[in-house]
Write a structure and sequence with these properties.
By secondary structure, the chain is α/β, with parallel strands linked by helices. It contains 13 helices and 15 strands.
Length: 359
Amino acid sequence: MPLRAAFETSFGVTTSRRVIVLRVFDKTGATGYGECTAMEAPFYNHETVDSAWSVILNFVAPILASAKVTNASCVAKALEPIIGNRMAIGAVETAIWDLEAKLCDQPLWEYLGGTRSEINCGVSIGLQKSTELLTESVSRELESGYQRIKIKIKPGQDIELVKAVRGEFPDIVLSVDANSAYSLDKDVRMLEELDDYGLLMIEQPLAAGDLLEHAKLQRLLKTPLCLDESITSLRDAQQALEIDACRIINIKLGRVGGHTSARSIQKFAEQRGIPVWCGGMLETGIGRAHNIAMSTLEGFTLPGDVSASARYWHHDIIDPPVTVGPQGTILAPSASGIGYNVNEQTIASLTVRSQTVLL
């Protein structure tokens, strides 16, 4: 699926998304949908679209078949023997949650235990070619109602961008996301300088595995650090909060392996008084619908990256597309499961490979 506009981060430029869509079904004909959020190249994390395809077919499906899983909450436990590959696991796990919610005739967000029927939305803006283009983009998103602006940064494109946005919009809720682009040894002075701009958070400034380095950095800053790539499980979250490596957590369904893991992380963070929010991976409407459901959980107290379909796609693969209201909110759907109709005809027209596995 081609993006409406290129999206640039510290690890590269994305102009289109090759997506694995998961469809699970039972003997009654009921159907659930999930989406694999892995990228084409292993730059965000170790997974790719092709590796996830292989893991799903050769490991996830056979393990689930032998485990004789009967409900969605048991999927994660059954798949524990698989090391890593959370996006492959999450794609299947979320599809099974959708199927189960439909069989119970409940909206997925209610079935998961969500407590709010409307979620608050922020937006993520990729790296721009100039500060002028960046501030123009921020202005458009604010006019669309988004409650929090996040801008991507990387070495050589950081302080000047933040300074320009904060100068133009002194009162907005603003955060930055580095996608692991910095090191404590080389960049501590710049990171300390970010403290001067009243940011909501600095997201994943250092490498994913560097919890200790993040803890060192957090002690130097008054701005909360938010961890993204570093948090792939409840255990990661527990260790990060134990050493004060962050004060906010970004939860991405694919990165943590699905709804069961996401719920456990948000519950633990809530008990510790740590806010969480939903991050995005340039999802189609299927992944976006799952993100909406997850964002209704009690612990999701900050605006997430769940924005309108039209920001990314000329034509989404769900009907109706996800829309954001003038106050920067999305209403949780009332229909069962993910709450949106999946356009099978559109998917068929875009499909380059498919396979059916009978369990």
